[in-house]
Structure formats: structure tokens, C-alpha cells
From TrEMBL:
The keyword Transmembrane applies. This is VanZ family protein. The lineage of its organism: Bacteria, Bacillati, Actinomycetota, Actinomycetes, Micrococcales. It holds the Pfam family VanZ. Residues 41-118 form the VanZ-like domain. Keywords: Membrane, Transmembrane, Transmembrane helix.
Length: 134
């Protein structure tokens, strides 16, 4: 498989994983017992929220930047944090949680920061050395 096709396949897979992870926010909880089992690690769900949003923002920026749509997409992802909680407030066995929104927004910031750091490092590694002398 040519390198260009592998790159496209990797990007499609990454987007599919991100979409699947984000869809879990809309799944109903199976049982109250399942939630109790997840409570073994305090606030683990907040880490999951942060991680999913960080991966989502990094993916969007990786695929769209430096296009103008990238900033709009990141803002839309931040707004999505509020939508998720509003929808969950209407679902059985789910609830609105302000701490989830905070965790999501931390993930948005973290994803953007990691993307910017990696981009800056990559750009620094590609710099052409200045000529010395004539």
C-alpha cells in the first residue's frame, strides 16, 4: 500500500475511534450496579471525559489546522460539552453534571495545548539552518 493510502487509512481510523468514543456519552448506563463498579476509582469518569475531549481536539486540529475552520471546530467541541450534559439530563440513569463539563473543557484545552506543542516541536525540527558567512 502506498504511503499516501496508509496515511489516509490511519486518519480514517483515528476519526472512527474518536467518533466511537464520543458516542459513548449518549449511551444509557446499563445498570446502577455498573456505575457502582466504576466508582472503585474516584472521579475516573472525569479522567475519561478529559481524555476523550483531548483526543478529539487533537484529532480535529491535526486534520484541519491551520485552516480557519480549525478554530471553529474546537469551539464547537467545547460547546458539545454542554450539549452532552443537557442530553444526559433527559436520559434514564444519566444526569447533568457540571463537573463533567469542566472535565470536558479541560480536555479541550489539553488537546489544543498538546497539538500546539507537537506542532511547535515539529516546526523546530524542520527549520533550515541560517547561513553563516558569504
Amino acid at each position: 500500500m502506498p504511503a499516501a493510502h496508509r496515511l489516509i487509512a490511519a486518519r480514517v481510523l483515528l476519526v472512527a475511534v474518536v467518533l466511537l468514543l464520543n458516542s459513548t456519552f449518549y449511551w444509557p448506563k446499563l445498570t446502577p450496579e455498573a456505575e457502582a463498579a466504576g466508582a472503585l476509582i474516584p472521579h475516573a469518569d472525569k479522567l475519561v471525559h478529559t481524555g476523550i475531549f483531548a483526543l478529539t481536539v487533537w484529532t480535529v486540529l491535526h486534520l484541519l489546522a491551520p485552516r480557519p475552520a480549525a478554530g471553529f471546530a474546537v469551539a464547537a467541541i467545547g460547546a458539545h460539552a454542554f450539549v452532552i450534559e443537557a442530553v444526559q439530563s433527559l436520559m434514564p440513569l444519566r444526569s447533568f453534571d457540571l463537573a463533567d463539563i469542566v472535565a470536558d473543557l479541560v480536555g479541550v484545552a489539553a488537546g489544543a495545548a498538546v497539538w500546539a506543542l507537537l506542532r511547535r516541536r515539529g516546526a523546530a525540527g524542520r527549520r533550515v539552518p541560517e547561513r553563516t558567512g558569504r
